[in-house]
Amino acid sequence: MIEKHLHELAGVIGARGSATLGEKRAADYAAGQLAQWGYQVAMQPFRALTTFSWLYITLYLWPLLGWFLGWWWFSLLGAVLFFLELNTVETISRFFPKGSSQNVIARHPEGNGSQVVLVAHLDSSKAGLNFSPKMVKNFRVSFLAMVGSMFVAPLLLLMASIYGGAWYYVALIPCLYLLTICATLLHREIWNFYTPGANDNASGVAAVLAVAERVKENLPSDIDLTVLLTGCEESGTYGMSRFLDAKGSEYRDAWFINLDNIGRGTVHYMAGEGMFPVHKSSPEILSACQAVAAARPDLAVRQGVYNLLSTDALPALRRGYQAISFLSLDDEGLLPNWHWPTDTVANVDVATVEKAVEFVSELLQTVSGSTKKKS
Ligand SMILES: [Zn+2]
């Protein structure tokens, strides 16, 4: 079945850009499967950004505008907005054009007791030059240089406004560095190439569907299972945010288990995630994962920390929900074929997806009794 889901999502449907028809078709496919297994399926339509590029181009141009205006505080405001948007607090992104997307929300008909939400995103990303095999190795370093520039720019501009002279030219350096980042983002938009997204994230969707099918008739008696397949993760984890806006109060004590890019390399459960800062995963789910990892050494699932980009677990963790993400990393700690045209079905290792399915199924058995549903 995993092969079938991968083939349907990344082969037949293929590119599934955020808020595109491809993403909608993937949602319909997954909803059809879940309904067939007896799940109570609902679509949650919402509107969200279709890409993060224009938002971040605006934010990265902000310090340069501050430099031209000579307003260090304006530059600082840009840095604050950047920090908030990066951590899923929507500020200026509210004013950007949006497209129509949807989440698939499916509840197990016999659910009762501890709430578990299995999460995977349906959309695939545009490729970008910074994900090319040569550049991607420096992804974290260039991200930190970018964060540094955003926060150093207002400081240098403040120095310039006090001391004048050469300080103005020094203050221009981080602004020009950020301008080069804008150029790569602009190229990403113009090139406009969505990947087939086999690993990212047909693998996660296939795994979630496989677990859902496995427990369709024998869900542990004290678990209330929800499957959440999100839209617009790649454009800024908006599907997850909209789900929490609408339904969060019903899931305050739930375990959110997010599967993303699990189709090649070594499967990891993440003790923390986020680009800046790193948010700690739920200690409760983490210790349950450690117990499963100890009981099932044959699966060779490891613990890690993920800080390359945000996942759907981030909006949940930031809002105080219990969440954890699973991702498979290669020997260099990267996601294989990440946001690149080589992210095809042929490059997914089904055995790796199966390990994740097995691990998460074991984890479901351990949830029993360790969380309590709000009454
Ligand atoms: Zn991705």
Write a short abstract of this structure.
The protein is an alpha/beta fold and 375 residues long. The chain is built from 11 helices and 9 strands.
General description of the model:
With about 375 residues, the chain is α/β, with parallel strands linked by helices. The chain has two domains: about 1-50 and about 100-125 and about 195-365, Zn peptidases (Aminopeptidase, 3-Layer(aba) Sandwich), CATH 3.40.630.10; about 55-90 and about 135-190. Helices cover about 45% and strands about 15% of the residues. Strands 1, 2, 3, 4, 5, 6, 7, 8 and 9 form a nine-stranded mixed beta sheet that branches. The relative contact order is 0.18. The model has no long low-confidence stretch (mean pLDDT about 95). Zinc ion binds near residues 125, 200, 234 and 339.
Total of helices: 11
Helices and strands, in N-to-C order? HHEHHEEHHHEHEEEHEHEH
CATH architecture of the largest domain: 3-Layer(aba) Sandwich
Tally of domains: 2
CATH homology superfamily name of the largest domain = Zn peptidases
Task: Name the ligand types.
Answer: zinc ion
Distance between the amino and carboxyl termini: 37 Å
Structural class: alpha/beta
Please describe the biggest sheet, giving its number of strands, its sense, and whether it closes into a barrel: 9 strands, mixed
CATH domain class name of the largest domain: Alpha Beta
> Would you tell me which CATH topology of the largest domain applies?
Aminopeptidase
| Cα-based radius of gyration, to the nearest Å | 21 Å
Q: Report the uncertain regions.
A: none
Number-wise, the strands total: 9
Global morphology:
elongated
User: What is the typical, i.e. mean, pLDDT?
Assistant: 95
Question: Which quaternary structure do these chains form?
Answer: single chain
Strand content: 15-25%
Helix content: 40-55%
